[in-house]
Amino acid sequence: MLNKTPPAPKPTAAELDLLRVLWRLDAPADAKQVHEALLAERPEASYATVLRQLQVMHGKGLLLRDESQRPQRYTPAQAQDKLQTRLLKDLIAKAFAGSGKALVMAALKGHVSAKEREEIQKLLQQQQTPGARDGQA
């Protein structure tokens, strides 16, 4: 029998909302702080729902919880970029047959503003020009 590590939990859309709040706060936060920060995006969110969701997320391994103080403070178990990269790899594998190019092409067809296109173009040009990132080009 092989000992496989269980797959990392995948957050739901509601859980991603709370993770984004915690990443934005950039410090361990209690349920009240998370609720207050979430109200700007989701004014219908109740404190009780936020508290319960944080507890569920802790149980799933999405959050770490400091129980040494009251109120308990929560922090994401994974850094934002690490989780986003993992979710993106999964999306590419499932929805785009493993093709990063297909993902980019789909995104460029209608999900990128003119300003974002300019930024992407500059990034691509920098990667093609040796020394461009160092200001030598």
Describe the structure.
The chain folds into 2 domains: 13-76, Arc Repressor Mutant, subunit A (Orthogonal Bundle), CATH 1.10.10.10; 96-134. 55% of the residues lie in helices and 6% in strands. It has helices spanning 13-25, 31-38, 47-60, 80-95, 100-108, 114-128, and strands at residues 63-66, 73-76. A two-stranded antiparallel ribbon has the order 1-2. The protein starts with 12 loop residues before the first helix and ends in a 9-residue tail after the last helix. The mean pLDDT is 87.
Which characteristics define this entry?
single chain; 137 residues; mainly alpha; Arc Repressor Mutant, subunit A; 2 domains; two-stranded antiparallel ribbon; 6 helices; 6% strand; elongated
Q: How many domains, in number, for the residues?
A: 2
The major pleated sheet works out as: 2 strands, antiparallel
Beta content = 5-15%
The spatial strand order of the largest sheet comes to 1-2
Number of strands: 2
Q: What's the structural blueprint in terms of helices and strands?
A:
Layout: H1 13-25, H2 31-38, H3 47-60, E1 63-66, E2 73-76, H4 80-95, H5 100-108, H6 114-128
Antiparallel strand pairs: 1-2
Helix pairs in contact: 2-3
